[in-house]
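#struct-help
A.M.: can someone run this one for me? Single chain, 104 residues.
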Amino acid sequence: MEKKAKSQKRSFNKEFKLEAIELAKKIGNSQAARELDLHESSIRTWKRKFEGPFPKNIKEKVTYSDLEKEVKKLKKELNYLNEINKILKKSHGILSQDHMGGMK
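D.P.: on it. Structure tokens below:
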């Protein structure tokens, strides 16, 4: 029986990792991983490590007043949806009574 050679763990310097991330941004994670003979998860891990969990392509900062406007808009939308929900519940009750022939 042939003994399988134990694979050595490869290590990469920070410069290589950053270049791999840039390449992945241009051509995609899977293609970059194939070209660099890496596993795709390595590139994803490096991206999270160096760029954080959220993309940094947001160019403008969100102000407090913008957030207040968004909250106001969402509250208005929530109230609207709650009203629709109430109407649907009432109509379901009315239709259920009609379907039963007025017997309960």
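A.M.: thanks! The chain has four helices and no strands.
D.P.: also worth noting: The two ends are 80 Å apart (CA to CA).
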